[in-house]
């Protein structure tokens, strides 16, 4: 009987809709694989050990069509018709991988998968076109003929949307408002995502350790504690060199950092050095408020610039001949607490005061984009005040960045005792840390803890 006559007598066997597995292989041009029985059925590949393994696997498990499509003795559901492959079944996954290999998708998908996996713990490399590879993978695998999208592909698509969403902070950490271009006097607005007062001067200390023990009523006096733990034992010559060779200036610089981050309010609410109307309702004037940090929680040279606009005004040069240049009064700083410290701390702070004025003069001299007027006589009083604020804010940003750089590159390395190693490594948390899972949050604010204050 000829094939033509067979088709006329059995029209339904030729025109019926093929099973899903057959459809996949027919669309890829490998219809002869539907009846694989042994490697001899593939003459051109009969000598390949890979195809022998495939045929043996096929004989022991069944045909590709049977495992890619629903069983004949049950009715397939809509979900099975859309995505009949059980991703938890190794057999189904094996046949699905074979189908992908035959259709030529495996090599390109493996390359995309490799780039994806290598990006999990490393910054994204735009030259590897990872996003483009993921889009290509979705475009080639999202739909089957006459069927809807695969749930498995929807999962990948969801992760791709998560990648795009997490690539940018939500809500945005800052904006273009003029009041957010420079540091505020009290350190506020470092977090615009619901906590603008986080770490600002006058806020409460954070607690990082759960209180498990009550404070005993009788504790040692500070003098006794210092003598017992911190006092140096002098030798006969009266001096003992630091084991790591550190200079005393390191501890003078540490004083600047400590006074920059911590200032417990051990006075009553009528403290003349700090007036914050928003806190008066919470402060009992007859008691100290040691829970309150009167300075900001940022390394921002508050000892030099002050913790609020009132203190800041005492050190800014507002003389008529200098208004508009963003200067500080010569050799001044805002914090009177440093006068009780060793003179080296005050001397170092004076250096940062001079550095601010040097930066301010340089900023006005360079005058990028011609945004400022060097000839102050051509400006009105309001224009001079605005220019003074902008130059002052810019110079403070640069000066604080220089101060933070010293903290990271010198002070922390001295604490970690890595200065003895022959290395140029520094701990730099300002770098962007980004990978496929998102990026490490930056510029979201900070609040120092009371426990850290006690240690310092």
From TrEMBL:
GO terms for molecular function: dioxygenase activity; heme binding; metal ion binding; peroxidase activity. Gene3D superfamilies: Haem peroxidase domain superfamily, animal type. It comes from the Eukaryota. This is Heme peroxidase. The keyword Cell membrane does not apply. Pfam families: An_peroxidase (PF03098). GO terms for biological process: fatty acid metabolic process; response to oxidative stress. Transmembrane segments: none annotated. Keywords: Dioxygenase, Iron, Metal-binding, Oxidoreductase.
């Amino acid at each position: 009987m000829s094939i033509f006559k067979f088709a006329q007598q059995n029209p339904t066997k030729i025109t019926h809709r093929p099973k899903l597995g057959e459809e996949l292989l027919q669309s890829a041009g490998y219809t002869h694989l539907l009846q694989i029985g042994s490697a001899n059925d593939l003459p051109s590949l009969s000598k390949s050990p890979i195809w022998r393994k495939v045929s043996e696997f096929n004989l022991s498990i069944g045909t590709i069509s049977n495992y890619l499509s629903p069983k004949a003795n049950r009715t397939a559901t809509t979900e099975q018709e859309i995505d009949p492959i059980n991703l938890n079944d190794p057999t189904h996954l094996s046949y699905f991988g074979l189908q992908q290999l035959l259709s030529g998708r495996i090599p390109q998908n493996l390359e995309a998968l490799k780039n994806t996996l290598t990006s999990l713990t490393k910054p994204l490399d735009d030259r590897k076109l990872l996003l483009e590879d993921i889009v290509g993978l979705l475009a080639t695998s999202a739909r089957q003929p006459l069927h809807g999208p695969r749930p498995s592909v929807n999962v990948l698509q969801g992760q791709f949307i998560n990648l795009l969403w997490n690539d940018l902070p939500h809500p945005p950490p800052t904006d273009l408002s003029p009041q957010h271009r420079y540091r505020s006097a009290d350190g506020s607005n470092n977090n615009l995502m619901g906590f603008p007062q986080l770490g600002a001067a006058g806020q409460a200390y954070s607690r990082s350790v759960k209180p498990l023990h009550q404070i005993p009523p009788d504790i040692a006096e500070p003098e006794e504690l210092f003598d017992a733990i911190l006092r140096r034992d002098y030798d006969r010559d009266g001096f003992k060199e630091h084991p790591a060779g550190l200079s005393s200036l390191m501890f003078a610089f540490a004083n600047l950092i400590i006074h920059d981050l911590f200032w417990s309010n051990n006075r009553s609410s009528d403290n003349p050095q700090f007036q914050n109307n928003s806190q008066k309702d919470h402060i009992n004037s007859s008691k100290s408020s040691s829970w309150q940090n009167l300075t900001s929680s940022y390394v921002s040279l508050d000892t030099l610039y002050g913790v609020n606009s009132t203190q800041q005004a005492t050190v800014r040069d507002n003389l008529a001949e200098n208004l508009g240049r963003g200067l500080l009064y010569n050799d001044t700083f805002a914090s009177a607490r440093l006068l009780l410290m060793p003179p080296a701390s005050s001397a170092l702070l004076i250096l940062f005061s001079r550095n601010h004025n040097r930066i301010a003069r340089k900023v006005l001299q360079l005058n990028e984009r011609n945004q400022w007027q060097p000839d102050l006589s051509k400006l009105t009083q309001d224009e001079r005040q605005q220019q003074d604020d902008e130059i002052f804010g810019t110079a403070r940003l640069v000066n604080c960045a220089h101060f933070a750089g010293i903290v990271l590159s010198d002070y922390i390395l001295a604490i970690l005792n890595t200065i003895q190693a022959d290395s140029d490594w520094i701990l730099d948390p300002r770098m962007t840390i980004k990978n496929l899972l998102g990026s490490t949050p930056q510029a979201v604010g900070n609040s120092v803890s009371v426990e850290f204050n006690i240690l310092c």
